[in-house]
Write a structure and sequence with these properties.
The chain is mostly helical and 297 residues long. The chain folds into 2 domains: 2-111, Serine Threonine Protein Phosphatase 5, Tetratricopeptide repeat; 140-296, Type II secretion system, protein E, N-terminal domain (GMP Synthetase, Chain A, domain 3). The protein has 13 helices and 3 strands; from the N terminus they run H-H-H-H-H-H-H-H-H-H-H-E-E-H-E-H. It has helices at residues 2-40, 45-57, 61-78, 81-95, 99-111, 140-152, 158-172, 182-188, 194-205, 219-222, 227-233, 255-265, 276-296, and strands spanning 235-241, 244-249, 269-272. Strands 1-2-3 form a 3-stranded mixed sheet, sandwiched between helices. A hairpin with a 2-residue loop joins strand 1 and strand 2 (244-249). Helix 4 packs antiparallel against helix 5 (99-111). The radius of gyration is 21 Å and the shape is globular. The termini are far apart.
Amino acid sequence: MEGLRGHSTMATEESSDKGRKQLEDEVWSAIAAFEQILEAMPEDRASLETLSHAYGQIGDHARSYEYVLRLGRVLVAEGAHVEALELLDRLRELSAGDAEGVALAAKIEAMASTPDDGAGTAVSPFPSTVARTVNMNPNMSEELAFAWNLLQAGEITQEEYASAVQDVTEMSGSDASATVSVLHAMEARGFKGVDRLIAYVSQDCGVPYVALGSFDIPKEVGVLLALDFVVRRGALVFDFFGSHALAVVMNPYDTGLRSDVETLAGRPCHFFVTRASEFDDAVARIAEIEVEVKAET
């Protein structure tokens, strides 16, 4: 009996080792894809950020730090102080007192009071909305972390995880104006467990599911967030509730996204999650509202 238990333990360990090896291979595949993007676009923010996250995931903190440095320098050069400040804590953690990291951190701190006129600025085109600055680029690190959370929770298989990583990687490198999100990738592949997945995310993040198609987005709500922000960041406001707003986020794990939505909306928000197809239908409605409003002004 003892021998059987020992054999079972050994088999479990071998299976675990095989799973870790397969997962590491999948991360390396994602790394290779983003490094190819960097060959063509050496200052691509999404690729630099994702590579830093991916190398950290496999325990190569030196390479992770290298890409954080590169990303930080790009953000400083572009004057993107909002994104640079968001990078600051991670830069300090990985630098561990390294002179280059300390110097870059000082430059970022010096940018804090400088207006951001770079590509990271989202300003609503509508006069009724207070102009604010937020990160405009899809947060690939957060999307990879989303997929990783689902894998760790046993909600998706390693094969499904690899597919999600590959899909969001390709989506981020495309010029298409489409929302880059794990939920979009899973639904596009016809993943049969989408509803179960959304139910898990809803419970895990404390963000209720909403059937977004049941709401007719009012014009004054549709203009609250710039369409470019809605598409690129995967978030939209669909109604008001008193002085608060009701908003959908396609990555409920991304707390920075929630903060940016409240910043742009200029009011507290109650957050929800929905299916990717319902989100895209709502985006189409918001695009129509934008055309209507521009025609009136």
